[in-house]
Amino acid sequence: MIFTGTNFILRRWQTDDAVALQKHADNPNISGCLLDRFPYPYSLTDAVTFIGLKKDETPITNFPIVVDGEVAGVIGLDFRQDVYRKTPLLGYWLAEQHWGKGIMPEAVKLITGYAFQNLDIINILAFVLGGNPKSMRVLEKAGYKKQGVINQSVIKNNVVMDEHVYAGR
């Protein structure tokens, strides 16, 4: 399964993606905008472990973003339990050298379309830390709507901040 964007593709994970994943993920400007479960520094072992968890998943819910033949980011859906089982969380990141090129809004649109056509879902949510307005803009460009702000609800790098909630349908 491959989705083709203007300057990138989304495809299934491959074992040999680990080196490029580690190279681009090991960036404090990326980890600083993500949940604490995203490690920093990001080691080759972290990359190998992550790919091992994702490369054979069925259905596919996590894709490498491949730019110029190299993994330069990740986009995926995180399925939850209980009453949230049909409303996955969207997560993504892109190598800093590719920021501002329009890749991520297009990738969000591709995975959103895929999810509603192929997965049993009713909505997709995305939570953005307050210090990340560029990610908010990505979601807005992709057609997601801000649902609200949860004030002073998260702590990242010892800074308490708001969390912005977006939904895509």
Describe the structure.
The protein is an alpha+beta fold. It has one domain: Gcn5-related N-acetyltransferase (GNAT) (Aminopeptidase), CATH 3.40.630.30. The protein is 28% helix and 33% strand. It has helices at residues 18-25, 28-31, 44-54, 103-118, 133-141, and strands at residues 2-4, 9-11, 62-67, 70-78, 89-94, 124-129, 145-156, 159-168. A five-stranded antiparallel β-sheet has the order 1-2-3-4-5, sandwiched between helices. Helix 1 packs across helix 3. The model has no long low-confidence stretch (mean pLDDT 97).
Highlighted features:
about 170 residues, Aminopeptidase, five-stranded antiparallel β-sheet, three-stranded antiparallel β-sheet
Annotate the secondary structure layout.
Blueprint: E1 2-4, E2 9-11, H1 18-25, H2 28-31, H3 44-54, E3 62-67, E4 70-78, E5 89-94, H4 103-118, E6 124-129, H5 133-141, E7 145-156, E8 159-168
Antiparallel strand pairs: 1-2, 2-3, 3-4, 4-5, 6-8, 7-8
Helix pairs in contact: 1-3
Strand order of the largest sheet: 1-2-3-4-5
- Approximate helicity band: 25-40%
> How many runs of DSSP E, i.e. beta strands?
8
Uncertain stretches of 5 or more adjacent residues = none
Shape: globular
- In the CATH hierarchy, what is the superfamily? Gcn5-related N-acetyltransferase (GNAT)
Structural class: alpha+beta
Largest sheet, in brief, is: 5 strands, antiparallel
CATH fold-level topology: Aminopeptidase
Pfam families: Acetyltransf_3
Organism: Mucilaginibacter gynuensis
Protein name: GNAT family N-acetyltransferase
Domain N-acetyltransferase: 8-166
